[in-house]
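Ticket #4471: structure output looks truncated?

Reporter: J.K.
Steps to reproduce: submitted the chain below (298 residues) through the standard prediction queue, then opened the result file.
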Amino acid sequence: MHGIRVLVTDPAAAQKLRDSYQTYPYSKRDNPSRIRIVTPDGKKSAVWQPRGLAYWKLLAKIVNEEPVHERDRIMVATLKPLGIEKGKQFEPDARQKKILDDASLVGEAMARSLSYAKRQKEAQLWPGTHWKNAVLLEANQETENHTSLDERTAWFYEAVTLSAGMTTKTPGVGQAYIGVQKDKIGQWLMGENSYRLRVPANAPVKQFWSMTLYDTETRVFIDNKHEIPARDSRMDLIKNADGSVDLYFGPTPPEGKEMNWVPTLPGKGWFAYFRFYAPTGAYFDRSWQLPDIEKVAN
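Returned output as attached by the reporter:
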């Protein structure tokens, strides 16, 4: 199973492209079978990692089933002393189980820190704001002199995949991802609070922009009863007189602004990605800027 994302603004064209998509083993190229494309049920197809010993059991299963990429050989070597090795059963004793159970929590805390509190200079987008570059590595995960270790840890704690289109430096193609975890005064974003983000007019995109909210624990869409995790510029959003758009996030919608609202869950932390699809020059030269998310009265 693998995932696809169709980035075409016209629904009919998107459906046509989706219907034409086909993948199959090279060995069956002369008589390929049609693939079945489905929309996954987020409640049944969890894509986040389990915690505790279950994490290590899943990792052992993946190591046994998947080929090892060249860039991952040294990482796989570090698993061998833990009893995780290709072609062998993972059978930790009681002492190892306790160590590994604790280690999964420490490891996740490290990954969460790298992800939600990025400190690299290149993560900073606009001085004085809490917006950060979400992707701090290239698709091959390498730099001139080293592998992007902390950067890949941060990204793959949040996300599932990476492509060259997501790391574009060329205006007018691909996508750009920026993330935010804190409000204007530096407080973590929480589901019981209400917030506003003003998206200035003339966003630097050839296609569209989107604002999507994620649960900090699972890193998947906020699971609200309205099934609304995002708003984007293709929607019939209410605009201000100057062309800007006010987006609202909170447990209840502001009166008359429901079309611009994304519901959040009290007691649940969240973070967001603002995506630029086919970003243009004003994104790259930083002449267009998003302000911080501001807390407002519930």
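Triage note (M.O.): checked the attachment and the full token line is present. The two ends are 42 Å apart (CA to CA).
Status: closed, working as intended.
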